[in-house]
Amino acid sequence: MLDAKFYDSLRRVSLRMSNKSSLNMSGNRKSVQKGISAEFSDFREYMPGDDLRRMDWNVYARLDRLYIREYMEEKEAVVSVLVDTSASMDYGKCKKAELAKDLAAVVSFLALNNMDRLMLYDMRDMGHPLSASGGRSAFARVLKWLERLTFAGEADMLAAAKKMQKKGPGVTVLIGDFLHGDMLDGESESYEKLLQYLSYCRQRPVVLHTLAREELDVDLEGTLNLIDSETKAKLRLTMDASAAAIYRSQLLRFLDRMEKGCRSCGVYVLCDSGKDRKALVFNDLKGIYDI
Description:
12 strands; two-stranded antiparallel ribbon; 32% helix
């Protein structure tokens, strides 16, 4: 996991939102409700019972009519983080699972640092999320929760998203390798349906696509017996220059499809588990931040 000094350098960064918050708890996000923050929103005519302290007497002097100043109320937003804990994530010299936990920790820190409400989910156990709010004091709970994660079996990303608790508009961060049959199948629309569902729920999807260096730059040679870490299916394959070229072509198609899917509704970032964490967080992830 990352150290305290690393998180200190993130204190001036916040997650970018596309929707205004509709929650009732106070926070730092602009709300759809009107309130009494310092940021002016609009005027409206005075109604009996309105707070006279919000009366604009300058307007009254000019127009001889009573108007109330309205201000944008600040509420907490919801940041939902879904971590793929399937067996395929436990792969690579620099394991995707460790990268996923680091990315989830970074996003969680940003959410709590900005006084947002955090919902942290294990995709294989959606019924028991970690709910945290109240600022950075809750971050220790997040780290303990992430340390206890195990990576095994299979995960259905679309089914997991549909089990999320609905708490109004916000950001949903998906962290995983997306190496599942329904996601890899070029004829299947599971990935697109996942993004559409999140958009329908007024969520801004942020896809942090975690892949191992060995998956991005395959250097296997010879005849191999491959075993699927999740389904245990076996495949005997001869890896030569032709097979490597086909793999690279299919990989690029897969990554292109992932990025295009997010282009209109959210953000897509390819995250290499072998890359330096500082470079990854501060350079590759800059598209998800408001600085």
